[in-house]
Amino acid sequence: MIIAITLAVVVALMLAARAWLHRRLAAPRVPVTTTPEALGLVGQAVQIPTARGKWLSAWLLDGDPQRGRVVLCHGWGVNRCALVPLARPLQALGWQVLMFDVRNHGESDSDTFSSMPRFAEDIDAALAWLQARTEDGAGPMVVAGHSVGAAATLLAASRRNDLAGVISLAGFVHPGVMMRRWLAARGIPLMPLGFLILRYVEHVIGYRFEAIAPVNVIRAIRCPVLIAHGRSDRVIPPQDAEALAAAADPNQIELVWLRGGHDLSAELADQWPRLSGFLSRLDPVSQAARPA
């Protein structure tokens, strides 16, 4: 009887701890309450199929596919509007822009959990959708992301051979490092509780952190990569950008420092000549190429 009660208490505590962890790690949903026109953009709302039978809400902004196409991926707990400061100059440059909400964000479908690999799945879905609507001979295809979206962009790009370029904005170096920062900020000791949490998160997302870490996958990217990072970023320190650049192919990497912190919206305009210069040097990749 005592053993049965003890086991019941242990199971109850484990379930409570699991529920607490899932709540703490869940991304807050910020609804989209505006339109492209209200933001000074020209485009239309579209729906994109993604993994697990889910749908992504997106805006397809008017542009010339022959000039270039870019898919934008936001970060954790925000929505597509977070990248409007990048979308505006891209549209002004004449590029076709697809900006979407990942699952569990904005107006997109809910799913069981969010993770960097699932961000990457949604990036792949957005790229496939845009490519299917583009004729042969179109301009370069580029993907850009911010924060977790940047890490997912690097992961998705490392598995593909059909991209002309990648832009990583305020990306982190390693999910394990990010999780350790998260634990430390909440006063959770690494041993033994933190270690168990890290292993549990790996189990839930279906990947070891080492296998998906941006610092480990960036070398596999076959196209030019631009890393932009705020010098005063306190969410993801500038050292992460330096480590990513050091791990990349030196012939394919460009590192741009921005003023300000993690939210780069105001600072992007200052370095837009560098970003637009990067885009102007990209060459189209045949649509016959497919994810590796």
TrEMBL record:
- What is the name of the protein in this document? Lysophospholipase
The organism encoding this protein is: Spiribacter salinus
Q: Where is the Serine aminopeptidase S33 domain?
A: 65-184
Q: Which UniProt keywords apply?
A: Hydrolase
State a single Pfam family of this protein: Hydrolase_4
**Which top-level group of life is the source organism from?**
Bacteria
Looking up InterPro entries in the UniProt record yields: AB_hydrolase_fold, FrsA_esterase, Hydrolase_4
Stored PANTHER family = DIENELACTONE HYDROLASE DOMAIN-CONTAINING PROTEIN-RELATED, POLYKETIDE TRANSFERASE AF380
MF terms (GO), sorted A to Z: carboxylic ester hydrolase activity
